[in-house]
Amino acid sequence: MSQPSAPTPGSSTSRPAAPGDAAGNPWAGGGTLFAGFLLLVDGVLGVIKGIAGIATNDVYTVVNEYVFKFNVTAWGWIHLILGVLLIFVGWGILKGASWARVVGIVLVSLNLIANFMWLPYTPIWAVVTIAIDVFIIWALCTDRSKPVL
Known about the structure:
Layout: H1 26-55, H2 72-95, H3 98-117, H4 123-142
């Protein structure tokens, strides 16, 4: 007859946390705090991009024959408005507002798309912003320590 084996001393009998558990992932929880700060930084960078585009048309490269070609002033207004909204949402995430995660994912996704379309004007700045946006989206989507809505 076989007897059930007892756990060895020092081993844990608890199961690992499931993705939907309330405990959440500590990496994602810390990432969410960092994402809130990155949203503030990303918003400030967007405001700076926007002001530079609105103030003068010769700050950025003028691109000919580009599918997503807009006037540089129009791009400036797009980045300025997105930047202000990102700052507002970043502040909401740092305050722990439940609406801020969902709104943050939507706005950061729009910012990512806008910066992808902005690539020919300032490639390095756009790629850095896209990388920041991808991290923010990951952090806001994976943290399950608080309910989304």
